[in-house]
Write a structure and sequence with these properties.
The chain is mostly helical and 135 residues long. The protein has helices at 14-29, 56-65, 70-89, 102-114, 123-133, and strands at 42-43, 53-54. The protein is built from 5 helices and 2 strands.
Length: 135
C-alpha cells in the first residue's frame, strides 16, 4: 500500500472556500438569487407632508419573479395581466398602495365578473384571483 505525502499550500484558505461552497449550495437548493435588483416606482411627492407611494404593480411583478416553478409564475402572470387590463380600463398606468381600498377591490371584482372575456369568471375564479393578489 502506497501512502501519498502531501503538504497543504498557504495559497488557499480552505475554510473560507468550504464556507463559500456551502453557502452557494444552500442558495441553489433554496432558489435564493445572488442579487435581486429592484427599482420600485414612486409617485412624485406634492409636498413634504406626504410620504413616498410605492407601486403595487411593481411589487406584484417582483413576487412573480421570485416564484420557484413556471406554473406558479404563469398563474400569477394571468392575474397580473387581468389587473393591468382593469387599470387600462380605468385609464391608469400604475396602481399605488395608497389607492388600494375595499372599494377598489369591489370594483375589480365586478369588472372580473362582467367583462366580456373568452374565459368566463364565476365567484370561485375571482376568489382565486384575490387569493393570488393578497400578501
Amino acid at each position: 500500500m502506497k501512502i501519498f505525502n502531501y503538504s497543504t499550500t498557504t495559497d488557499f484558505d480552505y475554510q473560507t472556500i468550504n464556507t463559500k461552497i456551502n453557502k452557494g449550495i444552500y442558495r441553489f437548493e433554496n432558489n435564493i438569487p445572488d442579487k435581486v435588483k429592484v427599482e420600485l416606482k414612486t409617485r412624485p411627492q406634492q409636498d413634504e407632508t406626504h410620504s413616498i407611494c410605492l407601486s403595487y404593480m411593481d411589487n406584484f411583478k417582483l413576487r412573480i419573479s421570485l416564484k420557484k416553478t413556471e406554473s406558479h409564475k404563469y398563474a400569477m402572470l394571468n392575474v397580473c395581466q387581468k389587473l393591468e387590463k382593469y387599470l387600462k380600463h380605468l385609464n391608469k398606468e400604475n396602481l399605488f398602495f395608497d389607492k388600494i381600498n375595499s372599494d377598489f377591490w369591489k370594483r375589480f371584482k365586478l369588472y372580473c365578473l362582467t367583462v366580456p372575456d373568452p374565459r368566463k369568471f364565476k365567484e370561485g375564479g375571482v376568489k382565486n384571483y384575490f387569493a393570488t393578489l393578497k400578501f
